[in-house]
Design a protein that fits this description.
alpha+beta; CBS domain Like
């Protein structure tokens, strides 16, 4: 989800709210991403985040 928004949009949301919140459409779980999470996802294409969070 974060990757599909693009760096500019994610950065804009992060600057305005301090975090990016995403809701899973399957289970309705909410996930919050701070600056460190966002940097990891954008730098690794999401691969590192999956390893860290699972």
């Amino acid at each position: 989800m974060l990757l599909s928004l693009g760096r500019a949009k994610v950065t804009d949301i992060l600057e305005k709210k301090g975090e990016v919140e995403v809701t899973c459409e399957l289970c309705n779980a909410q996930y919050r991403f701070d600056l460190i999470d966002i940097e990891q996802v954008l730098l690794t294409g999401g691969a590192a985040y999956l390893v860290i969070r699972n």
